[in-house]
Task: inverse folding
């Protein structure tokens, strides 16, 4: 079965007015293909509640819901996808638990990381950060536009076709430029959140 890997995904973040499920609903309403629920500092009950509600919105709009880090929550609610960092449960282990149908993405900072995540069976790889971002602690070295071009060149040379998603501090007007490097897609957070927040106050 051909998996539907989204080209644009929105990553939720803590916000004083908008819950994570609110952000998911607003993003889906704006036509965003996928939302990744990322609640690093929340308790299990809150994550489960927000993710379950966000999944209802995803089904309503025929979109994709990604759970960050937790294969347990992804399995419990029946999410479409899970995204795993380099230090989380490895993708091949997660695959044994979640099965072949779910989309599993992995994080990378270098070409070597991409090779590792590909060897583990990643359906896509989130490569970043593009620039400095305040939404993530313990940030890896900045990749930048030149870094993306070089890594895509290396992938083409090795005939590696894993979809690469740029992530980290991306502005809305930079999406097209980044896709022109040969990247498969982008993940956005803060830039889109400002837009979504403004709409709720109009």
Result:
């Amino acid at each position: 079965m051909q998996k539907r890997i989204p080209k644009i995904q929105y990553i939720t973040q803590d916000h004083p007015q908008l819950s994570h499920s609110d952000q998911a609903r607003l993003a889906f309403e704006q036509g965003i293909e996928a939302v990744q629920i990322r609640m690093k500092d929340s308790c299990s009950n809150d994550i489960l509640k927000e993710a379950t509600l966000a999944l209802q919105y995803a089904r309503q709009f025929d979109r994709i819901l990604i759970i960050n880090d937790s294969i347990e929550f992804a399995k419990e609610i029946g999410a479409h996808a899970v995204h795993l960092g380099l230090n989380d449960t490895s993708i091949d282990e997660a695959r044994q638990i979640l099965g072949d149908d779910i989309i599993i993405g992995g994080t990378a900072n270098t070409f070597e990381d991409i090779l590792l995540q590909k060897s583990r069976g990643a359906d896509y790889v989130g490569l970043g950060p593009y620039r400095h971002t305040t939404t993530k602690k313990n940030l890896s070295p900045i990749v930048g536009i030149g870094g993306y071009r070089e890594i895509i060149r290396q992938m083409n040379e090795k005939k590696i076709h894993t979809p690469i998603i740029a992530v980290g501090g991306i502005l809305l007007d930079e999406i097209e430029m980044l896709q022109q490097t040969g990247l498969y897609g982008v993940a956005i957070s803060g830039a889109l959140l400002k837009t979504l927040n403004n709409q709720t106050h109009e």
